[in-house]
Amino acid sequence: VGPAADAATAARLIRESTPDRREVGNPPASRPPAVLSRNRAGRDGEDRTEGDGEDRAVDGEDRAEVEVIDAGGRAVIPGFVDSHTHLVFGGDRADEFEARMTGTPYAAGGIRRTVASTRAATDDELRARLRAFVAELRAQGTTTFEVKTGYGLAVADEERLARLAAEVTPEVTFLGAHVVPAEYAERRDEYIDLVCGEMLRACAPHSRWIDVFCERGAFTADESRHILAAGVAAGLEPRVHGNQLGPGEGVRLAVAVGAASVDHCTYLDDADVAALAGSATVATLLPGVEFSTRQPYPDARRLIDAGVTVALASDCNPGSSFTSSMPLMIALAVREMGMTPAEAVWAATAGGARALRRDDVGVLAPGMRADVVLLDAPTRVHLAYRPGVPLVRTVWVAGQIRE
Ligand code: NIG
Ligand code: FE
Fold this sequence. Notes:
Blueprint: H1 7-17, H2 46-49, H3 62-65, E1 76-78, E2 80-82, H4 94-100, H5 111-119, H6 123-139, E3 142-145, E4 147-148, H7 155-166, E5 172-177, H8 188-203, E6 209-214, H9 221-233, E7 237-242, H10 250-256, E8 261-264, H11 270-277, E9 282-285, H12 287-293, H13 300-305, E10 310-312, H14 326-336, H15 341-355, E11 372-375, H16 382-385, E12 392-397, E13 400-402
Parallel strand pairs: 2-3, 4-5, 5-6, 6-7, 7-8, 8-9, 9-10
Antiparallel strand pairs: 1-11, 11-12, 12-13
Helix pairs in contact: 6-7, 7-8, 8-9, 14-15
This protein binds N-(iminomethyl)-L-glutamic acid and fe (iii) ion (FE).
The site of N-(iminomethyl)-L-glutamic acid (NIG) has 13 residues, from helix 5.
């Protein structure tokens, strides 16, 4: 694919080199791209992924720009859209992971340890680490990703995390309301005022989204509503961390405020599922967290069967899920959460795009950005069938090969 290539070129590449178009992930072209319309696929996921069966020629002057690549019968899918990461931080918490594997429960309080090591890092250290993570994502087929702040929790630190994140993605989320930092432990109202005031003003210019960790031990539903409202008033769009560690009000709050996505959704009751099903809020499931914390996996089958739009994301962070691998999320979703391979790949591509309200990525179709992944496998099923094997062979971002 040449430098001027777009999704039409990708469509041609796919047409010429993929034997089974059902493996491609194309939405039917007879209706708007899947990211623009709500998709209620059946259990087999076919109508989420099947192409329209029509060949499209690349004509006129475009032809000179086109390099046809023989994929040798390998599967081609859209680049992954990882709609939830926390990639700007210092240090790690391998000791906590090790302790969890012998029975110590996950505690969100560990976030404060990463806050300390993040504050101690220089901009250059954080930038170098972030760029290394971006390279890691790309190598695993992720072509669009979101990055949150949330390990600064002071005005200058949150501002620099947002600024550094904005160097690598337009999808920056201000998460000053991750936890109340230790120095405000006895003054949480003051901290919330800071988040909604000076910290928000410092971070909003670098950010698209406002997020809050609505959970016991973090922020209550009332506090979360107040913080999200402040973000919306500053021009940011809301998303929520909810129902991760236990039942709670996060999901219903997200629906009530019209959040693009509510993330985790591990502990849901029937009212939560019904609220999501009647809304435009995406349920973003983060199975790397359950893998790494030994909590029960969220029930994707229940959500999909209720008509909820489901996305998969990595939640890459040093505490609850230190992996950036979308293929691993797909494998876990299929093995542990009741998703078909087709549904899981959809959720990791088009679903992520919906969670970020993006209509230009996540689907291979004319007019979309040519974010394309060539797998070293004949079908997308192999992403779940061969867990842990590096099956991503070639990645194109906007038509350009990324090594
Ligand atoms: O999404 N839930 C809150 N935040 C992160 C965990 C952060 C950490 O443990 O450092 C999450 O899982
Ligand atoms: Fe998170």
